[in-house]
Amino acid sequence: MQTQQFLQQKGQSITTLHEKYKIRSSTHPDQTSFPLIVLNYDNIQSPRDEQIVNECRGLVLELNSWKIVARGMTRFFNQHHSYSSSPNIRGLNDDRELVFLEQDQSPSLEKSKLFDYSNFSLETKEDGTFLLMFCYEGEWMIATRHNFCEDYLAIGSETQKTYRELFVEICGGVELNEIGKDLDPSLTYCLEMCSSQNEIVQIYQNPVIYLLTIVETQSGKELSRDQVDKICLKLRKRAELKNWKRPKRFENFSSLEQALKHLDTFISTHENVEARLRIEGFIMRDTNNQRLKLKNPFYLLIHKMKYRGWIQATPKFLIPFVVHFEDYKKSSNSDKPFIISVLSKYYECEYEMKELEVRYQYCKNILQKEIVQLESLWSTCSKMNEQEFETFQNDPSVKNRSRLFDLIKVLKNSTCSEKPTLSQLLKNNSTYIVAQLFSGQSQQEAFESAVLSSRASKHSENYCQPAKKLKVTEPNNGLAKTKPFLDKKTNQYKVQCYCGKAMVLKRLKRDLVQYRKCHCGKCFDIHTYKVGTLLYQCTSYPKCLLNHEAHQRDEMFSDEKIQYYKGQPLGIPSSELCKIYRLQIHEIMSILMKKNNWKKSQCYQLIAEWLKVEKSQAHVALFSIETCLFVISKFIDNYNIYN
């Protein structure tokens, strides 16, 4: 493997692997007994066309020797769908609309050229947590793409369930070594763990462990599907493992069109509207084990807004739900629009739901005003003969009455035995609607202005200059009463929130999007903690929204010669106001670094001199409100920052 070759080169390491390819890593919590590391690409930052990136999809290696311990399938991509920046109008008999999806910047086109479309099968794309089950030194274990299943399922207290505990629970309480008695230690078993406790988008009424495939660990060769079927059947003979299954398989496809049609048919077999939209889709698999993902477009929209946050709630993503499901409220006896109802389960915070609702309502109002005009025009045009309509549509003032007038043309010119309704055309033309109503610069600015009005009034792009001789009134100067410390018994850091509750280290399961707030009380920017970020969160979240940052990996700063460890808290947790002042110091440092071509270490050296402390004690994350105000005033007085 290229990943092994890279790490075995002189001067290369896990650190340089991250620097070059943005590969995330996590070591086994018991490194003494199990010197293992799991490697996984970053969805955003990793270069997608690199073989190393595609190999690191939960790849497990032995530390230092870099021996392969577990590997799954090489990364594969979504089936590419065409996209038009000037979308055509689609009639009732046209293929279903897929073009409102975001253009995939992955190398899926190149991958699809390798795929044999003349002979392939479809397997249901199960929607859960991808696991590798493997044996190391006689011990069977499981790993996600991010760690060795020590993650908690959700934010909360330390007594909550880990992914490993959930796996054992679904396996009827049977421990891994007991399951491993029927397995081959030279193989890696690729699994998908699906349940209501680790729900992604698709809903599972009963928990399932899907056996996706089995890989020869050293060679990477997959066992045949028949072999995997037999192994799964053997495991299921144990009553405790009744929840082990294989994905459903459909054979004999010879074109993408056939597969798309089957996807539509498969989705429509689910009676419940919400269940249809949550179905993820299929894996296309040819005879050479080349794979492509064929996904339900509505699943992708829900997934995007769940994991990338309310900031993704733009017309491009919301309009499909407005045109398809504004009547969902009536059919489901719900007082909320469909997408609001779905995402309310994932957005824990009140402000997140408010942001989503404001955006949805804006899109709905704009479209409904346009539809009123369109219906009025259609009422007139539907009674016209061909010649009258020709004269009517050439009148320049007509198009000014509705930006969606081209839909009227489709209705008039339709040759279907059953003419499409306006409602049907709207549902089939989400991309056209977005292009006409929301894509122009003035339209985009109007959307931004409308949704941003839900924040405080306008603010400059920088923090305000604090008032001179500001009196600090916050208890303990804005710092948590107890400093973080390492519990030697558990080898875990104990971190207390400013509110007094314990904080728990979490790997974020979705992007955490928050407003950047000034000490004047106004919001002026967005800050996003990306999915996968290690972050301390209060155990009373979402009641308390305070968080505290952690080191993302083991690292040493050369000018300090102090070793920091992955998961170690950065400084001392603080109040919201103290954190705002800390962020203002970082803003000032960024301004100076850009203006004077400084390094960050030069800024810290200045701060250390002003505070008369060692450089290691000049980290902003240690500062109280009073210290922050002192440092800010020093920067402003000496460097004229905001002029």
Automatic annotation (TrEMBL):
<dbReference type="Pfam" id="PF11672">
    <property type="entry name" value="DUF3268"/>
</dbReference>
<dbReference type="InterPro" id="IPR019039">
    <property type="entry name" value="T4-Rnl1-like_N"/>
</dbReference>
<dbReference type="InterPro" id="IPR021686">
    <property type="entry name" value="DUF3268"/>
</dbReference>
<protein>
    <recommendedName>
        <fullName>T4 RNA ligase 1-like N-terminal domain-containing protein</fullName>
    </recommendedName>
</protein>
<dbReference type="Pfam" id="PF09511">
    <property type="entry name" value="RNA_lig_T4_1"/>
</dbReference>
<feature type="domain" description="T4 RNA ligase 1-like N-terminal">
    <location>
        <begin position="55"/>
        <end position="299"/>
    </location>
</feature>
